[in-house]
User: Fold this.
Amino acid sequence: ADKKELPLAMLELLIRYTDEEHSLSTSELKQYLEQEYDLTLERRTMYANMDLLNPAQCWSISCGVAWQINR
Assistant:
């Protein structure tokens, strides 16, 4: 997969696998990106791409120890 797809791939995975009660660790999110999208990346790349995806804070995305999207 193309690295340009990374922000949308991350968002898709967060929508699919997380909610207010369930989160993904950074390791789990990286693993899903590798398995489902053939994307291998560093942790800081994940944070930078999420910032690109959500500049207006349209989504309530928590990304610290674990990642989740609150609808």
About this structure: Strands lie at 24-25, 60-63, 66-70.
